[in-house]
């Protein structure tokens, strides 16, 4: 592998603060992209296309890169996924497209994500536009929440001629792509350029507009022909342990958000940080803390390494950044008078599997100890339902484990006018940007069919076209 393909070698003492937050992977050069594209076998019935939740025609976009048609490659990607630039950076490719690549078994998989980013960067740098707003069909749709699910649905509907208004409660659109994904994986600008792409299709994105506060839901349901709900998840729940409200105790998402909206040298952080939880959000907080300059960052998790929810490659990444892990450890109190001074924990053992199938942690008697620290970050998962979900019950919208229940084929709820997608419907399994994008596409096609009585021309991009000839 050429040196350039690899992530920048992380030597904090050699880099400025800004340099530590540059994109982790450098872009591929033209030569590297061509060489990599030419390794592709352009499989007939390509398994990578099935594994990609948005079913991008991967062999075709890679073939186009190999023949120098990068513009055509970008178009192929965007036809199936309007957020192709974000997905190329944030998709867990080892679990998805690259994990399915036939070359994985013998050698190493094609770098599908990085090639996709190459084509998307080319389109962005050259300000290329591929799609137009569709001819008006006289119908209007409201989208609640301008994250990946909402933007995908809004953009696809605009292409089909719907008048779409997207309501977003935050000052900037883009959802977690803008506010939640670590900046060295996705710069804010990439997410905002996708918002612009959707706006250029004629979608009206109204920020600082919270449905339920600035506008009531009834107005949307009455005034629009359909409503797509894509509000994501709720806030991180309280842990209900003493000391949780001390200064120096932070919500993991707020910590990440600071690095996306503030100047890096204005962010406050501790020298010795304890992070509670060992999921991907916790890992992101830990690596950010290290790159900001925290001397010791310890992730505290009540189960063992085998049960930790973070992806394996994220875990390896954190280890490489000098993050420590304390497994089988349960925090029971945050110690301190006016500020955080330590995290009181108890050792755990693993018992029988619980309802989730993972072995249940059981406290070891008399094993309490204090982990000294000056900051605690809670990264225990956003499993508090979004407030919007409760408001939907008056329309007969049902829930499944606290998430909105929808029909899988159409993303329609029990109310004929209300559709939903993204994290707010994901009652099981991993939630990801690319799955939210696909939900938005499916809902847009279903709304088209319901309101206009005909199949959407975009429906062909909903499923993998397994016998597609490579153009
Ligand atoms: C820290 C973190 C890191 C992640 N990293 C990755 C990753 O590397 N790769 C990956 O694929 N996925 C990652 N994810 C998951 C991914 O970000 C989500 O699955 C994806 O953003 C879901 O999209 P969504 O549109 O459903 O929700 P969101 O992105 O949450 O967007 C929902 C939007 O709705 C708005 N909203 C909420 N309520 C209202 C209301 N009442 N009125 C108006 N607007 C409202 C919100 O402000 C938000 O903008 C990560 C998640 C987190 C938390
Ligand atoms: S969208 Fe994600 S999963 Fe699909 S091909 Fe691109 S990087 Fe792979």
Task: Kindly describe this structure.
- There is one protein chain.
- The protein has about 475 residues and is an alpha/beta fold.
- It folds into three domains: about 5-125, Alpha-helical ferredoxin (Fumarate Reductase Iron-sulfur Protein, Chain B, domain 2), CATH 1.10.1060.10; about 140-235 and about 385-460, FAD/NAD(P)-binding domain (3-Layer(bba) Sandwich), CATH 3.50.50.60; about 250-380, FAD/NAD(P)-binding domain, CATH 3.50.50.
- The chain is about 35% helix and about 15% strand.
- The chain has helices at about 15-20, 30-40, 45-50, 60-65, 70-80, 85-90, 95-100, 105, 110-125, 150-160, 175-180, 190-200, 215-225, 250-260, 280-290, 310-320, 385-390, 435-450, and strands at about 140-145, 165, 205, 225-230, 250, 270-275, 295-300, 325, 330-335, 340-355, 360-365, 370, 375-380, 400, 405, 420.
- The protein has a five-stranded parallel beta sheet, covered by helices on one side. A five-stranded parallel beta sheet has the order 5-13-6-7-8.
- It starts with 16 loop residues before the first helix and ends in a 19-residue tail after the last helix.
- The model has no long low-confidence stretch (mean pLDDT about 90).
- Iron/sulfur cluster binds near residues 56, 96 and 97.
